[in-house]
Amino acid sequence: MVPDEQWAAMPGLADQYEDLVDSEFGRIDNIMAIHSLNPAGLAAHNALYISAMTGTATLRKVERELIAFVVSFENHCHY
User: Fold this and answer.
1) Extents of the domains making up the chain
2) 28, 40, 55, 56: which has the highest count of C-beta atoms within 10 A?
């Protein structure tokens, strides 16, 4: 992974940093940072996440997060 403090100097990462940095903790979540070696993959993952979390008004964000948690749990995903 590219360390957070180096993203500003990396082509393809600098423009994504502000959209991904956690404002509360001031860092990139590991699940997103793992894609830092492939900026196009990072952008695709973030686009998928945004679509899944905002694609329809029928579920609240907390409900979407709970669904993601249960699916991850059932798939034995440790993330």
Assistant:
1) 4-74
2) 28
pTM check: above 0.90: no
What φ, ψ does residue 21 adopt, rounded to 5°?
-65, 135
DSSP collapsed to 3 states, 2-42: CCHHHHHHCCCCHHHHHHHEECCCCEECHHHHCCCCCHHHH
List, for residues 45-65, the tens digit of each pLDDT value: 999 988 888 877 888 888 888
Dihedral through CA 46, CA 25, CA 33, CA 3, nearest 10? 140
